[in-house]
Amino acid sequence: MAKKIASFFVSLFGGITSVWWGKYLVMFIISLMPILELRGGLIAASLMDAPIIPSFFVCLIANIIPIPFILWFINGIFAFLKKRGKTLGKLVTKIENKAQSKKGQIERLKYLGLILFVGIPLPGTGAWTGCLIASMLGMDKKKSAISAIIGVLLAGLIMLLFSYGILGRIIR
Known about the structure:
The chain is an all-alpha fold. The protein has two domains: about 1-65; about 65-155, no CATH class. It has eleven helices and no strands. Helix 5 (about 65-85) packs across helix 9. The radius of gyration is 17 Å and the shape is globular. The model has no long low-confidence stretch (mean pLDDT about 85).
């Protein structure tokens, strides 16, 4: 699914990729987005034949940027949105319920659980969801930020192996 969405964004922003920084802008935007995050950014980078090392760092930085905002401000933003109307309130409640359904994975192991939740690239995991859960659980924000960053780094290394086909070359 991430490959399809990444392909969509690559084709959507296809014209901008003709300038030297265009590919990096596309992967940066994709890596900022919830759900896709760095995983989608690295797939997009691979699809655009962007160089591995700069692509990795662009995606890594873009996926790390939202972490402090989510940890420090998401509860207040959600409370504000719930007061703004039924539609927004329902959307926020749906997001909170989705996060609540995954909290056991983090709650049991705390910060190691957060690292693994963010770092193992499976559907529904990642920095956005992990930080939302950490915030909802009232975990220490600084420790959560560090754990989420370590998780993003782990996810980046794993996705680098898959998206650039390095794993296939190692196995052969």
